[in-house]
From TrEMBL, chain A:
Cellular component annotations (GO), alphabetically ordered: plasma membrane
Record's subcellular location: Cell membrane
GO biological process, one term: aerobic electron transport chain
Main localization, broad class: membrane
One function term, GO molecular function aspect: cytochrome-c oxidase activity
Entry similarity comment: Belongs to the cytochrome c oxidase subunit 3 family.
Keywords tagged on the record: Cell membrane, Membrane, Transmembrane, Transmembrane helix
Stored PANTHER family: CYTOCHROME BO(3) UBIQUINOL OXIDASE SUBUNIT 3 (PTHR11403:SF2), CYTOCHROME C OXIDASE SUBUNIT III (PTHR11403)
Entry annotated with the keyword S-adenosyl-L-methionine: no
Organism taxonomic ancestry: Bacteria, Pseudomonadati, Bacteroidota, Flavobacteriia, Flavobacteriales
Protein name (record): Cytochrome c oxidase subunit 3
TrEMBL record, chain B:
Transmembrane parts of this sequence: 23-43, 55-74, 110-127
Protein name as annotated: Cytochrome c oxidase subunit IV
Pfam families linked: COX4_pro
Signal peptide, first to last residue: none
Recorded superkingdom: Bacteria
Membrane topology: Multi-pass membrane protein
Record keywords: Cell membrane, Membrane, Transmembrane, Transmembrane helix
Lineage summary: Bacteria, Pseudomonadati, Bacteroidota, Flavobacteriia, Flavobacteriales
Intracellular or extracellular location(s): Cell membrane
GO cellular component, one term: plasma membrane
Length: 332, 148
């Protein structure tokens, strides 16, 4: 577009950004260069995620069972919160494009307002993502990890409108305390100044005792069956699996263990949403800088709001990436 | 100032009076698409949860058939719908929010073709390899078995 002319002292300098090869200014062109390379980075990550998922296609965690929380509400609401986050980000894209449009009309007041709203939207999104991470790290029901690194979860069959549904049960609700639990090794004991990570809240033995005491509780493993649900084991098999293969009680997710299933899922979730969140965060910082420039009248004096357009391109790109992250982590 | 915005979407089916109006129109459309995705994601209609076609066995033409129709043979229709809707959203974000619609076609092609070609290539290679590793783990005579 020819409508914005930035007089930044480069006119006529062919190699200094003075001419416009594709009808776009030097700055905009460079932003497009960056966006293409960043898009390739993100698609590299997402393709690597797809690789790992295809590798374990028969046992990948089901997103609807992982992300089920909404702040301030109890209960099971898959998708709702992340849909809200998506909407917030699209909305802040809209205010950004409105700011660009107001910039074309040299309307300083409107650019200021819309830039401000964009920053607010970005901040809400980053905050939501932090909350989503915290919930994911904290965990839900807990599970037992086997010697082979697989995850065994607990639940029972309940009657919902005449249909047998598998309902998850938290390990807190049935574990039986056992006295012979190993004591955490602290710095002051034994080998000096050597300590270990905090022990899990329960030992496998405590979980096993609890499972034995509650005949209604069954174990389910990671394997996805014909109906697209995780396989629930029989009562005998449940007890046998925990006794013979149970090794570690896990609650929540981190880079090493993941109560929801294969730990690769947690690794990719942290890495990709983290990298995207970092983009949103830096986008907010850049938006704030541009916002103050607008308020100070820098672009008014320059006679062009093209800088708003350039940072807008970056901001829309962040939104664009989220659309794909949303699909591949939460929908597919 | 004169602006060179193209003020119509859906190939002229939906025309707008001003750029601001077009932005709100695109927002309405994107919100609708997201809402469809979320509703499908929550309810997961039974008819979309199983593939509609089965792979054909044996011979060159059977393989060719499987490759050409692979999105319908190996992917749940629901996931195919999600991916198509995502690409639709990506198109409108790039074309209307990032003003790709108003750029010169040379710039448009330099950005879009480069990205689309490299991304398709990358996805093909990695997913193909992931499927292969899955086979190694899961065929009947696989040497590596799940250890519990």
């Amino acid at each position: 577009m020819d409508t914005t002319v930035a007089n930044t002292g480069t006119e006529g300098k062919t190699w200094g950004g003075g001419n416009r090869p594709l009808g776009a200014s030097y700055g905009k062109l460079m932003m497009w260069f960056f966006i293409v390379s960043d898009a390739l980075t993100f698609s590299g990550f997402l393709a690597a995620y797809g690789f790992s998922r295809f590798k374990f296609i028969g046992e990948w965690p089901i997103a609807d069972e992982v992300f089920t929380h909404v702040p301030f509400f109890h209960g099971n609401y898959p998708m709702i919160y992340v849909a809200f986050m998506t909407f917030i980000l699209i909305m802040s894209s809209v205010t950004m494009v409105l700011a660009v449009d107001a910039g074309h009309h040299m309307n300083k007041a409107k650019v200021t307002l819309y830039m401000f709203l964009t920053i607010i939207g970005g901040a809400i999104f980053v905050g939501s993502q932090a909350w989503e991470w915290a919930t994911f790290i904290q965990g839900d029901y807990g599970a037992v990890q086997t010697k082979g690194g697989n995850i065994l979860q607990f639940g029972e069959y309940v009657d919902v409108d005449g249909e047998q549904k598998f309902k998850r049960i938290s390990i807190d609700d049935f574990a039986v305390p056992v006295a012979d639990v190993r004591v955490e090794h602290e710095r002051k004991n034994g080998l000096w100044f050597v300590d270990e990570a905090p022990l899990p809240e329960y030992s496998v033995n405590e979980i096993y005792k609890g499972l034995e005491a509650n005949p209604n509780i069954l174990v389910r493993n990671q394997i996805i069956n014909e109906e697209g649900e995780k396989t629930v084991l029989s009562r005998e098999e449940s007890l046998k699996q925990i006794k013979e293969n149970g090794q570690l009680v896990v609650k929540g997710a981190n880079l090493v263990v993941n109560e929801y299933g294969t730990s690769l899922f947690a690794d990719f979730f942290f890495f990709i949403t983290g990298f995207h969140g970092f983009h949103v965060f830096s986008g907010v910082v850049i938006n704030i800088i541009i916002f103050f420039n607008v308020v100070l009248g820098t672009y008014e004096r320059r006679g062009s709001y093209e800088m708003v357009e350039k940072v807008g391109l970056y901001w829309h790109f962040v939104d664009l990436v989220w659309v794909f992250v949303f699909t591949f982590f939460y929908l597919v | 100032m004169a602006h060179a915005h193209k003020l119509e979407i859906f190939r002229g089916l939906w025309k707008f009076k001003s750029n601001t109006q077009k932005i709100w129109g695109v927002l309405a459309f994107l919100t609708l698409v997201t809402a469809i995705e979320v509703v499908l994601g929550i309810y997961k209609p039974e008819s979309l949860m199983h593939t509609w076609l089965d792979p054909m066995e044996g011979g060159f033409f059977a393989t060719l058939y499987n490759i050409i129709l692979s999105p319908f043979i190996y992917m749940k229709p629901l996931n195919l719908i999600f991916i198509l809707l995502t690409i639709v959203k990506a198109y409108y974000i790039t074309w209307d929010f990032m003003h790709m619609r108003d750029e010169k076609s040379s710039l448009r092609r330099a950005v879009v073709w480069t990205g689309v070609f490299l991304i398709c290539y990358l996805i093909f290679i990695l997913l193909q390899e992931g499927g292969y590793v899955f086979e190694v783990y899961n065929t009947d005579d696989a040497l590596i078995k799940r250890d519990f």
